[in-house]
Amino acid sequence: MTRRGFSGSPTIGVLSTHPPTRCGLATFSSALSRGLRAGGATVNTVRIADGSTCDDTEVVGELISGSAASVAATAELLNRCDVALVQHEYGIYGGPDGDEVVDILRALRVPTIVVAHTVVREPTAHQRWVLEAIAAEADQIVVMSEAASGRLSTGYDVDRRKVAMIPHGAAVATDFRVRRAGRPTLLSWGLLGPGKGIERVIDAMASLQNLPGRPRYVVAGRTHPKVLAAQGEAYRESLRERARSRGVADAVNLETGYLGAESLRALIQSAAAVVLPYDSTDQVTSGVLVEAIAKGRPVVATAFPHAVELLSSGAGIVVNHQDPDALELALRRVLTQPGLAGAMAAEARHLAPSVDWPVVADTYLALAQRLCASRSALL
């Protein structure tokens, strides 16, 4: 194969969901792409189609799931770049467990980085095959926590030399001053749906209403599109009913509006603590967790792997999933012990620079340049 020379400022072909799709993966990919461009790379995005219209000039094509012609066209668009950067989640590609992505990877002729957003601890046989096939085709697999790296390296048939850990990025606050008004606020945010553990905090709020200022719990974010399509707003209404039945309806605010980056930043920095009460004991990547750290806020979380890892130095309190008393006590401590909350916030500020998007994007860019240079040396 004859390939044009590598100049040092690569063109990176990104395959991912992309705005206006509203999901964590689209937000991640868009922010990473901006960081790569700021570092000097050209970024061409192939967007996974979801029926919405995208007018982003950086989007050079769309992948239509279930279409062999679209799979082939996607591979050719990525092959026009110096390196392909493929975002992987099981649910975003066509085929069982999204196995169409394997066909795309097999058709690529350029160096390929795959970002594995999910590494299942106990995968089905087919999920295991998909991720192992992806790893076999890729030049590099990126995960976003040491927990994910260890799980991938020991629990799957993957060449450990291909596995790299690069943290999930976030926009680090330029001013960490807390801007509070009114009642102390506990905050959770993100697309709303079962599994986020919001019920745990609603139940705990009944025990916290005797505290000074009568703290409130704000849950910000629209209902997840898949939940909305299947159930409408029934889940959100069930949370409102739970708050009413616990006598804390005036202390629980389920906000439905879309929050832009600036509005979200202001909301996070007004919070006494960010709460991640997730049901999952398997989650090795949490963008919300990283955002909270990047804004210098204390965190209270259930013991999912990414939280256990990132909060181990003191930026938060981790509680057992099945221990509601421990959750209530942790929230009470953060709300009533300024010294503890201040120490947690200080540690979050200490960790924040390592997850700043420019730092994260530069790490990806260096990896892409290294792969391109290695490939060029072999030609």
From TrEMBL:
PANTHER family: GLYCOSYLTRANSFERASE WBBK-RELATED. This is Glycosyltransferase. The keyword NAD does not apply. Its EC number is 2.4.-.-. Residues 181-349 form the Glycosyl transferase family domain. It comes from the Bacteria. It is an enzyme of class 2 (transferase). The keyword Transferase applies. InterPro entries: Glyco_trans_1 (IPR001296). Pfam families: Glycos_transf_1. GO terms for molecular function: glycosyltransferase activity. Keywords: Glycosyltransferase, Transferase.
